[in-house]
C-alpha cells in the first residue's frame, strides 16, 4: 500500500518526501526476516514432536531431533515452536501433520509417500551391538559367529526380524523376543520397545547380541559403562530368494505435499545448517553414511 502511494505520487512530491518513502520501505523490509518476507511461509517453524520418545525427542528438548530442529530454525531465521504429542512418533504424520496441527515433522524416511520430504539431512543404518568381551567377529548376517548365538535383541516387524528368519534363528528366539515386550500382544496396538532397555539386555548379558536402528540406540551404546561394539551392517541384507532387505535409510524433514514454498525454504535451511547438524549427529554417536 505504501509502495503504491509513493509510486503514484512520484511526480507530485518533493525529493525530500520521496527519500522518506524509500527509507520507510527499506526499514520495513529490514524488520522482516527472509522467511517472513515470503507470504507463502508460516510465521513460525511449527514442529510436531513426541513428548517422550528418547533419544529423538522429549518435552525437555533433550532429544537429538529437538537439537536439529533448533539448528534448522536458526538457519531459516524463523522462530521455532514445538507442538507436543503424547502419542508415539510413528503417529506424528497421520495424527498431527496431516491434520494441520503442525507444519513439520523431523526424522521421516526420505520419499515417504504420505508427505513431501526434504533433501536428506543424514543417512544411517541398522547395527549389530554386542559386548566387547565376547570377542565376536561379526560384520553381517552371514558371519559364522552369528550361529554361535541364541538370544537376539530385535524389534518385531523390523528388517532385523526378517534377517533372523533367514539365518534360522527366529523360532529359537521367539519367546525371548516376546519377553522384551513383556509378552504383550501387538495386535491392534503399537508397542514401543524402549531403546535403553534393549541395550541394557546386551550389557547385562541377558541378550547375546542386538540388531537395531543405529540412531535409536547410539546414545545408549555411547554412554554404556560396559564396553560395547557397534557394527554397521551392509546396506542390503541378501536373502536366499534373491530379494534384498534394505538396512540403510535416508532421513528427511516432512511437510504436507502442497507446502512447496516451505519445503524449498527447509532445503535451503538444511544446507546452511549442515555443519551444525553433522556435529549434533556425531556427538550422539550415530554412524553416518
Could you characterize the architecture of this molecule?
There is one protein chain. This protein is α+β, with helices and mostly antiparallel strands and 289 residues long. The protein folds into 3 domains: 2-28, no CATH class; 45-122 and 251-284, Periplasmic binding protein-like II (D-Maltodextrin-Binding Protein, domain 2, 3-Layer(aba) Sandwich); 124-248, Periplasmic binding protein-like II (D-Maltodextrin-Binding Protein, domain 2, 3-Layer(aba) Sandwich), CATH 3.40.190.10. Helices cover 38% and strands 21% of the residues. The protein contains 10 helices and 13 strands. It has helices spanning 2-8, 15-31, 34-37, 64-76, 92-97, 159-166, 170-180, 195-204, 214-222, 260-284, and strands at 45-50, 52-53, 57-58, 80-85, 104-109, 116-117, 122-131, 152-153, 209-213, 228-232, 236-238, 244-246, 248-255. The strands form 3 sheets. Strands 1, 4, 5, 6, 7, 8, 9, 10 and 13 form a 9-stranded mixed β-sheet that branches. A hairpin with a 3-residue loop joins strand 2 and strand 3 (57-58). Helix 4 (64-76) packs across helix 10 and helix 8 (195-204) crosses helix 9 (214-222). The longest helix is centred in the last third of the chain and has 25 residues, at 260-284. The relative contact order is 0.17.
Amino acid at each position: 500500500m505504501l509502495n503504491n502511494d509513493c509510486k503514484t505520487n512520484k511526480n507530485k512530491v518533493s525529493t525530500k518526501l520521496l527519500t522518506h518513502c524509500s527509507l520507510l520501505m527499506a526499514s520495513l523490509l529490514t524488520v522482516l526476516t527472509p522467511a517472513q518476507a515470503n507470504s507463502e511461509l508460516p510465521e513460525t517453524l511449527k514442529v510436531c514432536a513426541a513428548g517422550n520418545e528418547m533419544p529423538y525427542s522429549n518435552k525437555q528438548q533433550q532429544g537429538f531431533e529437538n537439537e536439529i530442529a533448533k539448528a534448522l530454525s536458526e538457519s531459516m531465521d524463523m522462530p521455532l515452536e514445538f507442538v507436543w504429542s503424547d502419542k508415539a512418533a510413528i503417529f506424528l504424520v497421520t495424527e498431527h501433520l496431516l491434520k494441520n496441527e503442525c507444519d513439520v515433522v523431523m526424522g521421516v524416511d526420505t520419499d515417504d509417500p504420505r508427505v513431501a520430504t526434504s533433501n536428506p539431512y543424514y543417512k544411517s543404518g541398522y547395527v549389530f551391538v554386542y559386548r566387547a568381551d565376547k570377542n565376536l567377529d561379526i560384520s553381517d548376517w552371514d558371519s559364522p559367529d552369528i550361529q554361535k548365538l541364541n538370544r537376539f535383541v530385535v524389534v518385531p516387524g523390523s528388517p532385523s526380524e526378517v534377517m533372523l528368519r533367514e539365518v534360522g534363528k527366529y523360532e529359537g528366539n521367539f519367546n525371548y523376543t516376546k519377553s522384551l515386550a513383556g509378552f504383550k500382544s501387538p495386535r491392534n496396538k503399537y508397542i514401543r520397545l524402549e531403546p535403553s532397555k534393549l541395550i541394557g539386555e546386551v550389557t547385562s548379558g541377558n541378550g547375546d547380541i542386538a540388531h537395531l536402528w543405529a540412531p535409536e540406540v547410539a546414545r545408549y551404546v555411547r554412554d554404556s559403562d560396559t564396553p560395547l561394539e557397534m557394527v554397521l551392517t551392509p546396506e542390503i541384507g541378501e536373502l536366499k530368494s534373491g530379494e534384498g532387505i534394505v538396512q540403510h535409510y535416508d532421513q528427511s524433514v516432512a511437510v504436507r505435499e502442497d507446502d512447496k514454498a516451505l519445503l524449498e525454504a527447509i532445503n535451503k535451511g538444511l544446507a546452511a545448517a549442515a555443519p551444525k547438524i553433522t556435529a549434533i549427529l556425531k556427538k550422539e554417536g550415530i554412524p553416518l553414511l
